Amino acid sequence: MEFSSKLLENAVYEMSQLPGIGKRTALRLVLHLLKRPVDQTQHLSNSLLKLRNDIRFCSNCHNISDVALCEICANPKRDESLVCVVEDVRDVMAIENTGQFRGMYHVLGGKISPMEGVGPQNLSIADLVVKGKEGKIKEMIFALSSTMEGDTTNFYIYKQLQGLPIRISTIARGIAVGDELEYADEVTLGRSILNRIPFENSLRAS
Ligand SMILES: [Zn+2]
């Protein structure tokens, strides 16, 4: 792509670093911003910078939160003996939308992926194991996407928790849950949480 301006080229390059944004889309977005009042670009830049600088994570579940303890963890009506293990905030939002889950979450912050240099130490797994050993949790539901990385992560955590009196289950496979949880429709996702199966059964099936 030939640019008539270095400023334009730089802006398009930065925009195209975002996932799912190719050079053409990046150019369209940048030109759109140029046509709009300068305030809009200012607000966009400010809100992203503020998010990046001020971002906090719940001290209990590691979900993105503006306060030390997120709304879900701070809610006394939630069942703290039931913990749903998810990859990131999108999964929490998707599961909350189903209205079918009254337990707590534990947000890992990603999946184990040797290809991308993500090991167990880069995720909040150790913290989950500590919570497991405290004895309050009766059941953990693995709700990671059913990819190889998701399976690896599930199995790693399962091994770490072995010997603890915690029931480990996984959201029902075989129901058409999309590759990523966020794409599953609410009814399907809600059903797969209610119809969760013991994790050991999912090992035998695969
Ligand atoms: Zn929380």
UniProtKB/TrEMBL annotation:
<dbReference type="GO" id="GO:0003677">
    <property type="term" value="F:DNA binding"/>
</dbReference>
<keyword id="KW-0479">Metal-binding</keyword>
<dbReference type="InterPro" id="IPR006171">
    <property type="entry name" value="TOPRIM_dom"/>
</dbReference>
<keyword id="KW-0233">DNA recombination</keyword>
<keyword id="KW-0234">DNA repair</keyword>
<comment type="function">
    <text>May play a role in DNA repair. It seems to be involved in an RecBC-independent recombinational process of DNA repair. It may act with RecF and RecO.</text>
</comment>
<dbReference type="Pfam" id="PF21176">
    <property type="entry name" value="RecR_HhH"/>
</dbReference>
<dbReference type="InterPro" id="IPR023627">
    <property type="entry name" value="Rcmb_RecR"/>
</dbReference>
<protein>
    <recommendedName>
        <fullName>Recombination protein RecR</fullName>
    </recommendedName>
</protein>
<dbReference type="InterPro" id="IPR000093">
    <property type="entry name" value="DNA_Rcmb_RecR"/>
</dbReference>
<dbReference type="Pfam" id="PF13662">
    <property type="entry name" value="Toprim_4"/>
</dbReference>
<comment type="similarity">
    <text>Belongs to the RecR family.</text>
</comment>
<dbReference type="Pfam" id="PF21175">
    <property type="entry name" value="RecR_C"/>
</dbReference>
<dbReference type="Pfam" id="PF02132">
    <property type="entry name" value="RecR_ZnF"/>
</dbReference>
<keyword id="KW-0227">DNA damage</keyword>
<feature type="domain" description="Toprim">
    <location>
        <begin position="81"/>
        <end position="176"/>
    </location>
</feature>
<keyword id="KW-0863">Zinc-finger</keyword>
<dbReference type="GO" id="GO:0006281">
    <property type="term" value="P:DNA repair"/>
</dbReference>
<dbReference type="InterPro" id="IPR034137">
    <property type="entry name" value="TOPRIM_RecR"/>
</dbReference>
<dbReference type="InterPro" id="IPR015967">
    <property type="entry name" value="Rcmb_RecR_Znf"/>
</dbReference>
<dbReference type="GO" id="GO:0006310">
    <property type="term" value="P:DNA recombination"/>
</dbReference>
<keyword id="KW-0862">Zinc</keyword>
<dbReference type="GO" id="GO:0008270">
    <property type="term" value="F:zinc ion binding"/>
</dbReference>
<feature type="zinc finger region" description="C4-type">
    <location>
        <begin position="58"/>
        <end position="73"/>
    </location>
</feature>
